[in-house]
Amino acid sequence: MRIRDPIHGTIDVSGEEKAVIDSRFYQRLRHVRQLGFGDLAFPGATHTRHVHSLGAMHVASRVFQAVTGRSELPPEVRERFSAAVRLAVLCHDLGHMPLSHASERIAPQRALLRLPSWLDAVAEGDQATHEDFTAKLLLDSSLTPLIEENYGPLGITPEAAVGLITGAKPPRDPGFSHAGVDWTPLLRAIVSGELDADRMDYLLRDSFYTGVNYGRYDMDWLVSNLNPAVKDGRAHLALSRAAAFAFEDFLLSRHHMFISVYYHHTSVNFDAMLRRYYEEAPGEFEIPSDPEAFLHCDDVALWYTLRRSKNRWAQRIATRQGFKLLAQFTERDVGYDLDVLRSALVTGGFEHFTVESKGVLSKYFAEGSVPSLYIVDRSTGRLTEVSRYTPLYQRYSGAVRLTRLYVRPDQIEDARNMMARLLGQAVRE
Question: Class of 2-267+370-390 per CATH?
Answer without folding.
Answer: mainly alpha
